[in-house]
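Course assignment 3, question 2. Fill in each field.
Student: A.L.
Task: Predict the tertiary structure for the chain below.
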Amino acid sequence: MMKVLFAASECVPFVKTGGLADVVGALPKEILKNNVDVRVILPLYREIPKSWRDKMTHKLYFYVNLGWRRQYCGVFEARIGGVIYYFIDNEYYFRRNNGLYGYYDDGERYAFFCKAVLDCLPLMDFQPDILHAHDWQCALLPVYLTYRYHYPQVRTVFT
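Answer field:
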C-alpha cells in the first residue's frame, strides 16, 4: 500500500486562514478512497480549538537542533474521519497570540517545523513513500530531504 504524508501549515477542521486549509482538509479523504494510507502533519497552534485538542494523544517527544537553538518538539496524534493527523508541538514557535503568520521569525518557525517533520520520521510507526509539502511554509522539506536527511525511499511533491 502506498503511504503519503501531507505536511502543511493549516488544515480544516483544525485551523484555517485560506484555501490551503480547505485543500489539505479535503484531499486526504479523497485519496483514502484509492487505498492509499495518507496522513497529515501540522503545527500544533494555539488557535486549534480545545474540542480538537481533547481528541489528541501524545505520541512522542524529542529535540530539534536549529541553528544555535535546541528546541523541544512533541508529536500529538488524532484520528478524524479515517485520516490520521500528527501535530508538531512547540510553544515557542506555535503558541502565538495573533494568528498563524506575520511574525518577525516566520522563516525560523517553519524551518523548525520542516526539520521536526523529518526528525520525527524514524521515531514514528509510519514511514511515507511520498512526502507532499504544501505551500511556502513547507518549502524546505524537499531541500532538507535532499541535502541533510538520508531517507532515499521517500519521494517529494511540492505544491
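Instructor remarks: DSSP finds five helices and seven strands in the chain. The mean pLDDT is 96.
Grade: pending
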